[in-house]
């Protein structure tokens, strides 16, 4: 089982073929024991995964099914592609379980309920200062003196617990994991529009022994959420992880989530959100995406803008807790509140972005500006976003007709969310819980590395630059990341990395300071100026002398802790064809054309085609002989000497005149 061991080391789970019963028509007398039953009988989790799994393969399964094991869940899965499942998104599901657990801990503490997480020791919140540690210690002492009378554990129904909805559940794996791994739940509704998926969800709930918590639903997700808009019927947590864009579900979701509830949204249509189709992005999210180096963070800010805009229609607003760009998708966790006064402040949280097509410099333009209205303000009372705040239209633009650095034009993108995309105290709680209980999730190391980078980001600096793009613009060698960060720190600016890009640089330095540092680097690593075009951005940028003397001596604070500790921040590709999977089909199976295309496109730049038989073979339109069909040219990728070059002078003249007349 070497292959299974390798898959487990990458944070994935295996899919094992199951043995069918001897007589498929005979109903099963007893379902296999659930993980909870195995632990109740005194069996260790390791033994339950060896001996208990063999018992699961005997009864309660249909012919040809497999079992997918992830976390504490074991999901019956059809062999055909009738229900969607992607094993690479285990990180997504692990992170969601961790976030909902901490959200439940904070929310249920207000209801007098204490949650108990298996394997978790005493809570030690990671804080950034000693003063905060002392304050937390005093708070924990007070909380210890007044312990809540009610405790909630995993797998048990809590009357004052959270009501969770997974709008597009597919096999129900995520919902089953919620029921088995997240304490303090009152109910979990796993909904899917597919009848086969809803049937599979019900079977998996029974298979894992969580039917008392998990209810399967076969409804249109939007209609289900619209029907639950009442204040007493809303869900505390709504999870949307669709195949593609979640745009059609957002309007219903912001209404069906409770006051202060948690909304979790995944977007996998990254081609649209990363700038390939700006017009499509506007039609779905009300924002124009542009191709840029910071496209992944901009995608996060676009979905946050869309959520806030749709919530504002119903006098609601969002508070982002955590927003991450992972692999081929983005994931946001936001809380939704109601307040007419706060909603008025939403317009000042959005911004347009001006992006230079030549050098990549960008500037943000807020949609509105707010100021304190002293005339209507009571003496000694400061209210932001309230009666004492006056809003006015923004003034701009922040750039001229041409870029001041390279002379090229600007692209206009947005609007997008311009406020912080993380709640750092909340992220610190999730990070502390995961790092203190690493055996809880299969991807704990990656979660710890990702959240560590999130806590190090400059929260008040939207978007980022990349060192390789700055170097590519002026055609010089790329400076080492630590030296470039040190130069910014020596110049008096703040700088951080970004979880969304490996070589990103988030800084509050203006573009002029960045280009001054690059000019100083170019003087030490000169480029051949004679080869630069006078109209190129590189020529215009290097023609200006730097206004500061950059220091590239490496500073100690230039290397962040997550990098020093060698945390798993950007993992390698986990497996072949690890990206977005094919959409589930009612008849099951994946078309052979799709698999052939994937294999053909794998490493297409590394494995160049050398065999001429694999090249295209069709009549070349450029050199075709119109008058004589027998004279054709076989296209071999490059126009080498062939029949088309052996035509007579008269044939060439006749062909050219014919094409001219036809034009």
UniProtKB/TrEMBL annotation:
Chain intervals with Basic residues compositional bias: 597-607
GO term, biological process aspect, one: tRNA N2-guanine methylation
Region annotation Disordered: where it falls in the sequence: 1-55, 589-612, 626-645
Q: Which GO terms describe its molecular function?
A: tRNA (guanine(26)-N2)-dimethyltransferase activity; tRNA binding
For this UniProt entry, what's an example GO CC term?
A: nucleus
What reaction gets catalysed by this protein?
guanosine(26) in tRNA + 2 S-adenosyl-L-methionine = N(2)-dimethylguanosine(26) in tRNA + 2 S-adenosyl-L-homocysteine + 2 H(+)
Q: Which enzyme type, at the first EC level?
A: transferase
Query: What are the UniProt keywords, alphabetically?
Result: Methyltransferase, RNA-binding, S-adenosyl-L-methionine, Transferase, tRNA processing, tRNA-binding
Q: Which PROSITE patterns does the UniProt record give?
A: SAM_MT_TRM1
SUPFAM superfamilies under this entry?
A: S-adenosyl-L-methionine-dependent methyltransferases
Q: Which InterPro entries match?
A: SAM-dependent_MTases_sf (IPR029063), Trm1 (IPR002905), tRNA_met_Trm1_C (IPR042296)
E.C. code: 2.1.1.216
Query: What Pfam families has UniProt attached to this entry?
Result: TRM
Q: Which domain of life is it from?
A: Eukaryota
What the entry lists under PANTHER family is as follows: N 2 ,N 2 -DIMETHYLGUANOSINE TRNA METHYLTRANSFERASE, TRNA (GUANINE(26)-N(2))-DIMETHYLTRANSFERASE
Q: NCBIfam families this protein is in?
A: TRM1
Which protein family is it in? Answer: Belongs to the class I-like SAM-binding methyltransferase superfamily. Trm1 family.
* Name of the molecule in the record: tRNA (guanine(26)-N(2))-dimethyltransferase
